[in-house]
Amino acid sequence: MSSYTDFYVGRGENAEWIGSLQGECYPDNFLAVAPRRLALTTTKALTFRAAVTDTLDVWEDEGLGRAYRRESGWPWLWCSSHNSSWVITFDPAAEAVFVTVGGGVRWHRIDPLDPRFPEGDDPLGPPDIHAWLRDPVAPPSVPMPLMREKPAAMPTLGGDVR
To answer: Pairing mode, if any, of strands 96-101 and 86-91?
Structure first.
């Protein structure tokens, strides 16, 4: 099953979307290759941007899926990252990388010396999956920018509600 990862600088409704990945977007793949690992472990915004750009450049070459750059526009049918598998952002105020999941209710700070994604029963995800399916953007999901107008009904992809 394909997964989706969106990259931002900043957190909240004014975060800046800088690119997305589709395909093998699993945490182990982010930690296995230098540019992706650097994107997770940096403490500098410029380094994060460069590492994400490098990741977008090599993603398809490595056969891991599709890469979408900011200049091509928002790639998804859904209106925000609340429906993506992973959301990775660099917060300049905290000088750190944070990660959450679609419908995530909190941000997980990545330790640059020991970069690990949360494990177990997905402590980042929505506490009420049925409420999230009805409205992924609704609280308690963390605030994120709307990338397109929010539809009355959520679109589907291959039978999956997104």
So the answer is: antiparallel
* Sequence-ordered list of residues with C-beta below 8 angstroms from that of 18, at least 6 positions apart, any chain: 7, 8, 9, 49, 52, 70
**Interstrand relation of 86-91 and 3-9 (parallel, antiparallel or unpaired):** parallel
| DSSP summary character for residue 82 | G
Q: Cite the beta strand spans of the chain per DSSP E.
A: 3-9, 16-23, 65-69, 86-91, 96-101, 108-109, 156-157, 160-161
Q: What pLDDT score does 37 carry? A: 86
What is the amino acid identity at position 39?
A
Q: Which residues, other chains included, contact 108 with Cβ-Cβ below 8 Å and sequence gap of 6+?
A: 98, 99, 100, 117, 118, 123, 124
Q: How many CB atoms lie within 10 A of CB 157?
A: 13
Mean pLDDT by 10 residues, the chain (162 residues): 91 97 84 83 96 92 91 94 94 96 92 85 82 90 88 56 50
3-state secondary structure of 9: strand
39 closest CA partner among 97, 95, 78: 97
Given this model, what pLDDT does residue 34 score?
Answer: 79
